[in-house]
Amino acid sequence: xxxxxxxxxxxxxxxxxxxxxxxxxxxxxxxxxxxxxxxxxxxxxxxxxxxxxxxxxxxxxxxxxxxxxxxxxxxxxxxxxxxxxxxxxxxxxxxxxxxxxxxxxxxxxxxxxxxxxxxxxxxxxxxxxxxxxxxxxxxxxxxxxxxxxxxxxxxxxxxxxxxxxxxxxxxxxxxxxxxxxxxxxxxxxxxxxxxxxxxx
Length: 200
Ligand code: MN
Known about the structure:
- The chain is an alpha+beta fold and 200 residues long.
- It is 46% helix and 12% strand.
- The protein is built from eight helices and three strands, in the order αααααβββααα.
- It has helices at 21-43, 53-58, 65-82, 95-104, 107-119, 170-173, 177-184, 190-199, and strands at residues 125-132, 135-142, 157-163.
- A three-stranded antiparallel β-sheet has the order 2-1-3.
- A hairpin with a 2-residue loop joins strand 1 (125-132) and strand 2.
- Helix 1 packs antiparallel against helix 3.
- The longest helix has 23 residues, at 21-43.
- The chain starts with 20 loop residues before the first helix and ends with a helix.
- The structure holds manganese (II) ion.
- Manganese (II) ion is lined by residues 27, 31, 77, 163, 165, 167-168.
- Residues 27, 31, 77, 163, 165, 167-168 line the site of manganese (II) ion.
């Protein structure tokens, strides 16, 4: 497995006014790049360079906190960038819409539950929509942990990710995390959710 630092799938200002260009630039080019660089340095010369991220995360309890934090930071942001799109927002359609209605009762209920999970992460972390055995659920993780990791009580394949670290919103929204979460719904990428669900 060779790990690559992927390009951002859109320009820094593409998600304006919901996600501001300055935050996107710093978040991608400093934070995400930093996690990638440190992860590469941490695994250099070890057997982990031959494994997939899924394999590494599945046994992350056997690794150092440094590898967990930087590997998670590398992977989680890739899911996050893809969870947003300048063409996103609105209500879901296709298979993900059907699955949301089936597993949460309605889109509004899902949105409320996911938003609450994101709002109530204490300190830094993530909110996730995941799928396991064909069923959707919502989970939250601390720091750069993710639902692939064997240290997590709830595992599954990520469908959508929302970063609730302060670095994701503080420049534009300051302490108002709920406003940032509301903005996420204006750019959420349902095409990516459908693709993730199909490939899970
Ligand atoms: Mn982040």
